[in-house]
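RETRY 2/3 - previous attempt timed out on the joint model. Re-submitting the same 296-residue input unchanged.
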Amino acid sequence: MRLRLPARHSLVCQQAVELVTDYLEGALSRADHRRFEKHLARCTGCTEYLAQIRATIAIAGRVTPDDLTEQMRGEFIDLYRRWQHEGDAEDRGQ
Amino acid sequence: MLQAAQPDPDAPLLDRLRSGDEHAFVILVKRYRPTMLRLAAGYVPNHAIAEEVVQDAWLGFLRGLSRFEERSSVRTWLFRILINRARTAGVRERRSTAISDMTAAVDAARFDSAGNWLAPPEPWTDLIDDRLTAEKMAEAVRVAMVDLPLRQREVVTLRDIEGLSSADVCGVLEISEANQRVLLHRGRSRLRQRLESEFGRA
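RETRY 2/3 succeeded.
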């Protein structure tokens, strides 16, 4: 998905949205980083897009683990006990 | 972004686990079982088998405890065991989605011929401050995750839900940083689109 950006040209929106992840990951070259931010500075659509990607990441971070039911808790404790009975000597490969 | 080395929050549990503390095991299971299930579900045909794979991975984890040298974090190691087991059990691993799923981040129809927005993103980010709406959004993301291609789902689950560093994700999935970024990009793009469709207002 690496875009071949023509040197010195400013970005258009369709290119900018493809750079968002590399931008957030700090993976853009210095020149692309500059061009990306230059584009953002004058583009409300892409600024909103970046904000939405950030919000999407924040929302994903809120996806909470499902709770363990009592029954499952019991099953896992059984599993643990089974392992303890195997003894430390056993050293199976994964 | 720099991936600062953080102390492993699970490290204190290791000694307790080794000395027979059942509660320590339950804490760990509570912490990681949901993510493990989500990961396993990508490889096997149904929930029951995913549960089996997860159980099997926990047993593998316990059996490997004496060998674990803490060169990686506990969860990285745990997820790696899980992925290995799931791949072995998986009857529908779709390797082809690894690189070939190359759709655009945003539908091309939303840009004009010069590549400028015709239909810019409809705003919704202000809504995340409302707790109830944010919960609905999290639910929408949870649902949308299921539709992501396997590799994208793995990367997004580990990075954005579980909060692993990119280096750890690459280690768990055995992929390059560049490949990881591509998958993350595709996955996040789709989730964003889903949130916009559901919560955006023109």
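DSSP finds four helices and no strands in chain A. Closing ticket.
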